[in-house]
Amino acid sequence: MDLRNVTEFIKDISKYIIVIIIVLLLFIFVVGLQQVVGPSMSPNLEEGNIIIVNKLIYRLKDISRNDVIVLSQDEKYMIKRVVGLPGEYVEYKDNYVFINGVKYKEKFIDENIKTEDFSIKDIGYDVIPNDMYLVLGDNRENSLDSRSYGLVSKNQVIGKAWIRLWPLDSIEIIK
Fold first, then answer.
1. Does 86 sit behind a cis peptide bond, omega within 30 degrees of 0 on the bond before it?
2. Strand partners of residue 35
3. Rounded to two decimals, what is the model's pTM?
4. Per-residue confidence in pLDDT tens, the chain, 175 aa
5. Which of 50, 44, 66, 79 is nearest to 156 (CA)?
6. Which residue numbers are catalytic?
7. CB burial readout 26-55, b (16+ within 10 A) else e
8. Which residues neighbour 108 within 8 Å (Cβ) at sequence distance 6 or greater?
9. What pLDDT score does 78 carry?
10. Is 39:139 a contact under the CB 8 Å cutoff?
11. How far is C-alpha 88 from the chain's CA centre?
């Protein structure tokens, strides 16, 4: 092998190394993959679905009500919907959510699924503190969520569930 061939080989391989580094950085800081485990987000996300998580979005904008987020809780990743925001008083009465005393129509849950009466006072708060969120699964009858483990802090949020990638016949942007 002469020096010219070695130089061309190094140039060729360096392009692939750069691409691999860029892809790795994207998956570390910008996006990730997460599998849905359990029935808590049914019927909107089913067990076994694989989603792309946007890890960058909450560095650019605030978390909003109804966002489906991936969070870290007790060294596990969970997927939940944001229901209560900082400064709000949230309670459930007769299967309806009330935010600061005003009835709020939830668009993403099956109305036949019952939610037991609940108030953030049940977990020790008068209003949701800054940088904290009340998160619930869409399947309220079968979900481990803020009713069990309390409010979620912003630093527990990994990112926003962005695209359902699997199964292939159900690829869609998550609303």
1. no
2. 50
3. 0.78
4. 566 777 788 888 888 888 888 878 777 777 777 778 888 888 888 888 888 899 888 888 999 999 999 998 888 888 999 999 999 999 988 888 899 989 888 887 777 777 788 888 888 889 999 999 999 988 888 888 888 888 999 999 999 998 887 887 787 778 7
5. 79
6. 40, 80
7. eeeeeebebebeebbbbebbeeebebbbbb
8. 44, 66, 81, 138, 175
9. 86
10. yes
11. 20
Quote the CA–CA distance of 139 and 17 in Å, as a whole number: 44
Half-sphere exposure of 151 (CA within 13 A, CB side): 26
> Are 135 and 64 spatial neighbours (Cβ–Cβ below 8 Å)?
no
3-state per-residue secondary structure call for the chain: CCHHHHHHHHHHHHHHHHHHHHHHHHHHHCEEEEECCCCCCCCCCCCCCEEEEECCHHHHCCCCCCCEEEEEECCEEEEEEEEECCCCCEEEECCEEEECCEEECCCCCCCCCCCCCEEHHHHCCCCCCCCEEEEECCCHHHCCCHHHHCCEEHHHEEEEEEEEEECHHHCEECC
